TrEMBL record:
InterPro entries attached to this UniProt entry: AB_hydrolase_fold, Esterase-like, Siderophore_Hydrolase_D
A GO MF term: hydrolase activity
Entry's family note: Belongs to the esterase D family.
Organism: Brevundimonas terrae
Name recorded for this polypeptide: Alpha/beta hydrolase
Protein keywords: Hydrolase, Signal
Signal peptide from the UniProt entry: 1-22
Domain of life of the organism encoding this protein: Bacteria
Lineage: Bacteria, Pseudomonadati, Pseudomonadota, Alphaproteobacteria, Caulobacterales
Gene3D superfamilies for this protein: alpha/beta hydrolase
Pfam families registered for this protein in UniProt: Esterase (PF00756)
Length: 282
């Protein structure tokens, strides 16, 4: 587009070099605004973090409050755009409730999203790994208060992530369940540290309160290394069921690790943010 504008300004035809007529319209270039990006200083992380926010159409005029979906790996070159696109589509066609989407950009994924490992091979390969607890404190102590102070939120919060970010979602659900009302873990990398988190999930679940929460788990056709720890986790969820915890696991055998996320995220939106049923007159 920029090249075309320059060519027209010089009176040169892109097709064959002929002089453009005086009636040739000039293309006007304007930016497309998807959302707003914030540079948030973090004392917990010791660095400034990029936070991307998408607001529902009509937010400025509505005066309403909204639920918030926090998306891990939420950078502009990561998963922010395709997840906020799902939110926008639901708003346009009226299939899901309006929601604020907050993308948390990742900088060092194994440092931020993985719990500490005792596997020497993983330690050697990823020497900065294992600081998920610190990243969780950043979200809890700094990011969530920032979002609550800047936007009209209604207190309904969810956390979504895929792959290593899905591992972080499961760890947060198990260890700090009060942080969010709903958790969406797509193809979580439960194989990390030889499946230790899944094996320990029963002990964590015994400490859970009976507050209402939702956990959505899904996995594609991704081999035994991914499936085996998921089977352990779901068995512990069945064995330690809490009446107010709604959880389910949806296998997606036609999807791979590379293809599963968008469709799984769409399904999660339809469940978490379903439009209320219209009330009939008595």
């Amino acid at each position: 587009m920029r090249r075309l504008t320059i060519a027209l300004a010089l009176g040169v035809s892109m097709a064959g070099g002929a002089t453009a007529s005086a009636e040739t319209p000039m293309a006007i270039e304007t930016p497309i605004i998807i959302g707003q990006s914030y540079a948030l200083p973090s004392n917990v992380m010791g660095q400034t973090r990029q936070i991307n926010v998408w607001l529902p159409p009509g937010y400025e005029r509505s005066g309403q409050t909204y639920p918030v979906l926090y998306v891990l790996d939420g950078g502009q070159d990561q998963d922010f755009h395709h997840i906020s696109g799902i939110a926008q589509l639901g708003t346009i066609v009226g299939t899901t409730r309006d929601v604020i989407v907050v993308g948390i950009a990742s900088m060092d994924r194994r440092n931020e999203l993985a719990l500490p490992t005792e596997n020497p091979e993983l330690i050697a390969r990823y020497p900065t790994q294992g600081q998920s607890e610190r990243f969780r404190r950043f979200i809890w102590q700094e990011l969530q208060p920032f979002i609550a102070s800047q936007f009209r939120t209604n207190g309904e919060e969810a956390l979504m992530g895929e792959s290593l970010a899905g591992l972080f979602v499961v760890e947060t659900f198990l260890k700090e369940p009060q942080m969010f009302d709903a958790y969406v873990a797509v193809s979580p990398s439960l194989w990390w540290d030889d499946g230790k988190l899944a094996r320990q999930s029963g002990a964590h679940l015994r400490d859970h309160s009976n507050d209402p929460r939702t956990l959505i788990l899904t996995l594609g056709d991704e081999g035994e290394e991914m499936q085996a720890p998921m089977d352990v986790l779901t068995a512990n969820l069945r064995d330690h069921a809490l009446p107010n915890t709604k959880w389910d696991f949806t296998p997606r055998p036609t999807e791979s690790h590379a293809t599963i996320y968008h469709g799984a995220a769409l399904d999660a939106f339809r469940r978490l943010y379903a439009m209320p049923e219209p009330q009939t007159a008595p």
